[in-house]
Specification:
Elements (H helix, E strand, L loop, with lengths): L4 E2 L12 E5 L4 H12 L4 E6 L19 E5 L2 E4 L1 H11 L10 H13 L1 H12 L6 H21 L11 H13 L18 H11 L2 H4 L5 H12 L11 H4 L9
Parallel strand pairs: 1-3, 2-3
Antiparallel strand pairs: 2-4, 4-5
Helix pairs in contact: 1-2, 1-6, 4-5, 5-7
């Protein structure tokens, strides 16, 4: 799989007949869908796009040009990670990732909603630090506290149970990125093991899940990408060695 991000003027790769996910390598929302595809052991192709210089054809699959977008049939797409992931879980039920209990599914959705404050604080801290307010740091730690309490209350290895499920794969991409914040000079966002023992144990278990292990990036990698984006020149291709020595000229529009 190439880590190169296609951009304006690049051709849409030929469809192989598999499911195809359009993503951005450093996007947490796209990662949610990658993890679900991995967990369900589905065959799929992954195409990365440059979100600053979007290829024209992405709008055929995602009207706003956002990722992730899933091409479920040739030329036909659905977008938004939550919509995609529920679709995948219902379409391919062999490895179910949601509870059969309607109440537990509702509780999972409420937990994700309660965690949203921590996600919002992360985005401000990472990409708009000058706008960071004390209450945002409080909301961040409040979100971590709610998550830790729920993990402890459920008493299972993962939120979904003995194996991770949709709720785990929805929350994880942000936990993965939270660990980059201290490397960006935001020590107040550190996930202290002495304070978050249950949560850090959960995070360690998640790191070892095959679906995650195959795609996760280290905190310093996330930090480097964030720094490049802050400078106004997001280095989308930092993981693609071919982009350095073998990058072809951009195709000119006719």
């Amino acid at each position: 799989m190439s880590e190169k991000h296609l951009q304006t003027g690049d051709d849409l790769p030929a469809n192989s007949g598999k499911l195809r996910l359009f993503a951005m390598r450093f996007c947490p929302y796209a990662e949610r869908s990658v993890l679900v595809l991995n967990a369900k052991k589905l065959e799929y192709d992954l195409v990365f796009i440059n979100l600053d210089h979007k290829p024209e054809w992405i709008f055929n699959f995602s009207p706003k040009g956002t990722v992730p977008a899933l091409e479920y049939e040739a030329g036909k797409g659905i977008f938004d990670s939550n919509i995609i992931n529920v679709y995948l879980d219902e379409k391919y039920p062999d490895i179910p990732l949601q509870s059969s209990d309607p109440l537990r599914r509702a509780q999972d959705k409420m937990l994700v909603e309660q965690f949203a404050g921590a996600q919002s604080a992360y985005y401000t801290a990472a990409f708009n630090a000058q706008a960071l307010q004390p209450d945002m740091v409080e909301n961040y730690h409040k979100g971590l506290g709610i998550l830790q309490k729920e993990i402890e209350f459920r008493g299972t290895k993962f939120l979904h149970g003995d194996e991770p499920g949709l709720v785990d794969f929805t929350i994880w991409p942000f936990l993965e990125r939270f660990e980059a914040l201290p490397l960006l000079g935001k020590a107040e966002f550190t996930i202290d093991k002495s304070k978050y023992k249950v949560l850090t144990n959960y995070m360690e278990a998640m790191r070892n899940v095959p679906a995650i292990k195959a795609y996760a990036l280290a905190p310093d990698t996330h930090a480097k990408f964030t720094e490049s984006r802050i400078k106004g020149d997001a280095n989308y291709n930092m993981l693609d060695s071919s982009a350095v020595c073998c990058m072809r000229p951009r195709k000119k529009k006719e």
